[in-house]
Protein backbone atom coordinates (compact mmCIF):
# COMPACT_ATOMS: atom_id res chain seq x y z
CA UNK A 1 0.00 0.00 0.00
CA UNK A 2 1.15 3.55 -0.68
CA UNK A 3 2.43 5.58 2.22
CA UNK A 4 1.89 9.34 2.34
CA UNK A 5 5.57 9.80 1.52
CA UNK A 6 5.22 7.64 -1.59
CA UNK A 7 2.25 9.65 -2.80
CA UNK A 8 4.03 12.95 -2.23
CA UNK A 9 7.11 11.81 -4.14
CA UNK A 10 5.19 10.77 -7.25
CA UNK A 11 6.40 12.61 -10.32
CA UNK A 12 4.28 15.02 -12.34
CA UNK A 13 4.02 12.76 -15.39
CA UNK A 14 2.51 9.90 -13.42
CA UNK A 15 0.27 12.28 -11.51
CA UNK A 16 -1.12 13.48 -14.85
CA UNK A 17 -1.89 9.93 -15.94
CA UNK A 18 -3.34 9.09 -12.55
CA UNK A 19 -5.57 12.18 -12.70
CA UNK A 20 -6.79 10.99 -16.08
CA UNK A 21 -7.63 7.65 -14.47
CA UNK A 22 -9.71 9.52 -11.88
CA UNK A 23 -11.59 11.36 -14.61
CA UNK A 24 -12.16 8.16 -16.58
CA UNK A 25 -13.43 6.41 -13.43
CA UNK A 26 -15.83 9.31 -12.94
CA UNK A 27 -17.17 8.80 -16.47
CA UNK A 28 -17.42 5.06 -15.87
CA UNK A 29 -19.51 5.72 -12.76
CA UNK A 30 -22.00 7.35 -15.12
CA UNK A 31 -22.59 4.18 -17.14
CA UNK A 32 -21.69 1.25 -14.91
CA UNK A 33 -24.90 1.45 -12.80
CA UNK A 34 -26.88 0.85 -16.00
CA UNK A 35 -24.81 -2.27 -16.65
CA UNK A 36 -25.59 -3.44 -13.12
CA UNK A 37 -29.29 -2.81 -13.68
CA UNK A 38 -29.19 -5.18 -16.65
CA UNK A 39 -27.10 -7.75 -14.78
CA UNK A 40 -29.61 -7.73 -11.92
CA UNK A 41 -32.72 -7.71 -14.16
CA UNK A 42 -34.07 -4.50 -12.66
CA UNK A 43 -36.28 -3.68 -15.62
CA UNK A 44 -39.93 -4.64 -15.44
CA UNK A 45 -40.82 -3.20 -18.83
CA UNK A 46 -38.88 -3.61 -22.06
CA UNK A 47 -39.43 0.11 -22.76
CA UNK A 48 -37.46 0.95 -19.63
CA UNK A 49 -34.68 -1.41 -20.69
CA UNK A 50 -34.53 0.19 -24.15
CA UNK A 51 -34.32 3.69 -22.63
CA UNK A 52 -31.59 2.54 -20.25
CA UNK A 53 -29.73 0.87 -23.12
CA UNK A 54 -29.88 4.11 -25.13
CA UNK A 55 -28.56 6.03 -22.12
CA UNK A 56 -25.75 3.50 -21.73
CA UNK A 57 -24.87 3.84 -25.41
CA UNK A 58 -24.74 7.64 -25.11
CA UNK A 59 -22.63 7.54 -21.96
CA UNK A 60 -20.21 5.09 -23.58
CA UNK A 61 -19.95 7.43 -26.57
CA UNK A 62 -18.99 10.21 -24.16
CA UNK A 63 -16.40 7.90 -22.60
CA UNK A 64 -14.68 6.81 -25.82
CA UNK A 65 -12.95 10.06 -26.78
CA UNK A 66 -11.24 10.68 -23.42
CA UNK A 67 -10.41 6.95 -23.16
CA UNK A 68 -8.77 6.95 -26.60
CA UNK A 69 -6.89 10.19 -25.91
CA UNK A 70 -5.59 8.68 -22.68
CA UNK A 71 -4.51 5.36 -24.17
CA UNK A 72 -3.00 7.10 -27.21
CA UNK A 73 -0.85 9.24 -24.89
CA UNK A 74 0.26 6.18 -22.96
CA UNK A 75 1.10 4.23 -26.11
CA UNK A 76 2.82 7.13 -27.89
CA UNK A 77 4.80 8.57 -24.98
CA UNK A 78 4.66 6.68 -21.70
CA UNK A 79 5.21 3.09 -22.79
CA UNK A 80 8.13 3.88 -25.15
CA UNK A 81 9.79 6.10 -22.51
CA UNK A 82 9.51 3.46 -19.79
CA UNK A 83 10.30 0.73 -22.29
CA UNK A 84 13.76 2.23 -22.85
CA UNK A 85 14.51 1.20 -19.28
CA UNK A 86 12.57 -2.03 -18.73
CA UNK A 87 12.14 -3.36 -22.27
CA UNK A 88 9.19 -3.31 -24.63
CA UNK A 89 9.10 -6.82 -26.05
CA UNK A 90 7.88 -8.62 -22.95
CA UNK A 91 6.78 -7.87 -19.43
CA UNK A 92 4.29 -5.42 -17.99
CA UNK A 93 4.18 -2.96 -20.90
CA UNK A 94 3.17 -5.68 -23.37
CA UNK A 95 0.48 -6.91 -20.98
CA UNK A 96 -0.92 -3.40 -20.46
CA UNK A 97 -0.98 -2.67 -24.21
CA UNK A 98 -2.85 -5.93 -24.77
CA UNK A 99 -5.41 -4.81 -22.21
CA UNK A 100 -5.94 -1.59 -24.17
CA UNK A 101 -6.79 -3.74 -27.18
CA UNK A 102 -9.05 -6.00 -25.12
CA UNK A 103 -10.96 -3.03 -23.71
CA UNK A 104 -11.31 -1.46 -27.16
CA UNK A 105 -12.59 -4.82 -28.38
CA UNK A 106 -15.33 -5.00 -25.75
CA UNK A 107 -16.44 -1.44 -26.40
CA UNK A 108 -16.29 -1.92 -30.17
CA UNK A 109 -18.29 -5.13 -29.87
CA UNK A 110 -20.92 -3.28 -27.83
CA UNK A 111 -21.30 -0.61 -30.49
CA UNK A 112 -21.23 -3.10 -33.35
CA UNK A 113 -24.12 -5.06 -31.89
CA UNK A 114 -26.11 -1.99 -30.91
CA UNK A 115 -25.96 -0.07 -34.17
CA UNK A 116 -29.29 -1.35 -35.50
CA UNK A 117 -32.77 -0.65 -34.23
CA UNK A 118 -32.47 -1.65 -30.60
CA UNK A 119 -36.23 -1.45 -30.13
CA UNK A 120 -36.43 -4.61 -32.23
CA UNK A 121 -34.03 -6.43 -29.93
CA UNK A 122 -35.39 -8.65 -27.18
CA UNK A 123 -34.57 -7.93 -23.56
CA UNK A 124 -32.20 -10.91 -23.52
CA UNK A 125 -30.42 -9.59 -26.64
CA UNK A 126 -30.01 -6.17 -25.01
CA UNK A 127 -28.72 -7.81 -21.85
CA UNK A 128 -26.22 -9.88 -23.81
CA UNK A 129 -24.84 -6.79 -25.59
CA UNK A 130 -24.60 -4.92 -22.28
CA UNK A 131 -22.28 -7.68 -21.03
CA UNK A 132 -19.57 -6.22 -23.28
CA UNK A 133 -19.79 -2.90 -21.43
CA UNK A 134 -19.61 -4.79 -18.14
CA UNK A 135 -16.52 -6.68 -19.27
CA UNK A 136 -14.89 -3.43 -20.41
CA UNK A 137 -15.57 -1.91 -16.99
CA UNK A 138 -14.03 -4.87 -15.15
CA UNK A 139 -10.90 -4.94 -17.32
CA UNK A 140 -10.43 -1.15 -17.07
CA UNK A 141 -10.67 -1.17 -13.28
CA UNK A 142 -8.03 -3.91 -12.96
CA UNK A 143 -5.98 -2.24 -15.70
CA UNK A 144 -5.81 1.06 -13.79
CA UNK A 145 -4.71 -0.72 -10.62
CA UNK A 146 -1.91 -2.48 -12.53
CA UNK A 147 -0.69 0.77 -14.07
CA UNK A 148 -0.85 2.67 -10.78
CA UNK A 149 0.81 -0.03 -8.66
CA UNK A 150 3.28 -1.56 -11.14
CA UNK A 151 4.17 0.79 -14.01
CA UNK A 152 3.86 4.22 -12.42
CA UNK A 153 6.16 3.42 -9.46
CA UNK A 154 8.78 2.06 -11.89
CA UNK A 155 9.18 5.51 -13.41
CA UNK A 156 10.52 6.99 -10.16
CA UNK A 157 12.87 4.06 -9.74
CA UNK A 158 14.39 3.78 -13.21
CA UNK A 159 13.85 6.88 -15.35
CA UNK A 160 16.52 9.56 -15.69
CA UNK A 161 15.39 13.08 -14.85
CA UNK A 162 15.87 14.37 -18.43
CA UNK A 163 13.68 11.60 -19.83
CA UNK A 164 11.12 12.18 -17.10
CA UNK A 165 10.99 15.91 -17.89
CA UNK A 166 10.47 15.14 -21.58
CA UNK A 167 7.75 12.63 -20.73
CA UNK A 168 6.03 15.21 -18.53
CA UNK A 169 6.06 17.72 -21.39
CA UNK A 170 4.74 15.11 -23.84
CA UNK A 171 1.89 14.06 -21.56
CA UNK A 172 0.78 17.61 -20.85
CA UNK A 173 -2.48 17.66 -22.80
CA UNK A 174 -6.12 17.29 -21.87
CA UNK A 175 -8.21 14.21 -22.57
CA UNK A 176 -11.46 16.10 -22.09
CA UNK A 177 -13.36 17.62 -24.97
Quick summary:
InterPro entries: Hemerythrin-like. With 177 residues, the protein is an all-alpha fold. It contains 6 helices and no strands.
Report on this model:
This is Cation-binding protein. Residues 15-155 form the Hemerythrin-like domain. It holds the Pfam family Hemerythrin. InterPro entries: Hemerythrin-like. The chain has 177 residues and is mainly α. The protein has a single domain, classed as nmb1532 protein domain like (Four Helix Bundle (Hemerythrin (Met), subunit A), Up-down Bundle), CATH 1.20.120. Helix content is 81%, strand content 0%. It contains 6 helices and no strands. The chain has helices at residues 4-9, 12-39, 46-86, 92-113, 123-158, 161-171. Helix 2 runs antiparallel to helix 3.
The assigned CATH architecture is Up-down Bundle
| Beta-strand segment tally | 0
Order of helices and strands: HHHHHH
Percent strand: under 5%
The low-confidence runs, each spanning 5 or more residues with pLDDT under 50, are: 5-9
* CATH topology heading: Four Helix Bundle (Hemerythrin (Met), subunit A)
The CA-CA distance between the termini, in Å, is: 33 Å
What is the gyration radius calculated from CA atoms?
A: 19 Å
Number of helices: 6
Helix coverage percent: over 70%
Count of structural domains: 1
| Oligomer kind | single chain
The assigned structural class equals: mainly alpha
CATH superfamily descriptor: nmb1532 protein domain like
Provide mean pLDDT, rounded: 93
Amino acid sequence: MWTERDLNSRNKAMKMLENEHHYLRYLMEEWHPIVLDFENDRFEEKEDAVLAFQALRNKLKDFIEPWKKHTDKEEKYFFPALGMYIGKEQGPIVSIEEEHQEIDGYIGHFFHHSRGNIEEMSYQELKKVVQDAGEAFEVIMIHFVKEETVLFPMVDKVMKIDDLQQLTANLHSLITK
